[in-house]
Amino acid sequence: MVVESQRERQPRAAETVIEARGLTVGFGDTLIHQNLDLDVYRGEILGIVGGSGTGKSVLLRTLIGLVKPRAGSIRMFGTEMATAGPAEAAAVQTRWGVLFQQGALFSSLNVQQNVEAPMREHLDLEPELRGELARLKLSMVGLQPDAANKMPSELSGGMIKRVALARAIALDPDLLFLDEPTSGLDPIGAADFDNLIAKLQETLGLTVFMVTHDLDSLFSICSRVAAIGNKKILVAGDLETVVAYDDPWIKAYFGGQRGRSAQLAHG
Ligand SMILES: Nc1ncnc2c1ncn2[C@@H]1O[C@H](COP(=O)(O)OP(=O)(O)OP(=O)(O)O)[C@@H](O)[C@H]1O
């Protein structure tokens, strides 16, 4: 059952949105990734898993250009990012949105202003239209209109994630990067957020790159999973393929009590 539902969610045509080849990333004397290859296909929700410190967030930050790789290439929507000119790179960058782990809202801006921030930076819109669009994005992530004037300090953890998600979709992206979107949420809040991600992915036709530890997210909404270990992608494929892969961390992660419970719950 799990396998069938995973297959149903596989994109039909495997058009590559992100193509990373031979990525080597390090800090000082420490190598985090060495010769890492990864493809992300249009229309999929790809879950990135791996032990703590294996470099899942570093991979996300490398793909969006915040960490410069020592070697290798990253093609985003067919554009080689290392050699793209500033205008071309900026045009590609507006095609993705990012939800960072803690939400990373601007604490001095209210909710609506946070969602408007990318529009201010990249679009030349009248203030009324910008406000209207921001409120539309907020309603798309399930927030009531009265949330618009609240400050980040007045929000619950779940609301912060929703505002951050509204900001991530502010520019109508094709691609969404999510870093541990359900971390810090209670199980019901996490399940609601998973459902929201799946709904947005489907209605907006998004491609989603999602770093997660959350087994429920993997089993409920991911169409494919890539596991990081030994500085590279150990295995990428449907859950059945990844779960069956012979690696001690994968066996401990999926074969432990929580992994078995998640498989049963979503089976
Ligand atoms: N800017 C940086 N400078 C130096 N080291 C860094 C930097 N950013 C990350 N690291 C190191 O890179 C390694 C991978 O970090 P990363 O946050 O990607 O791990 P992760 O797989 O996301 O872990 P977790 O699951 O615990 O969040 C860690 O050892 C971290 O300390």
From TrEMBL:
One of its GO terms (molecular function) is ATP binding. Residues 18-255 form the ABC transporter domain. Pfam families: ABC_tran. Keywords: ATP-binding, Nucleotide-binding, Transport. InterPro entries: AAA+_ATPase (IPR003593), ABC_transporter-like_ATP-bd (IPR003439), ABC_transporter-like_CS (IPR017871), P-loop_NTPase (IPR027417). Belongs to the ABC transporter superfamily. PANTHER family: PROTEIN TRIGALACTOSYLDIACYLGLYCEROL 3, CHLOROPLASTIC. This is Methionine ABC transporter ATP-binding protein.
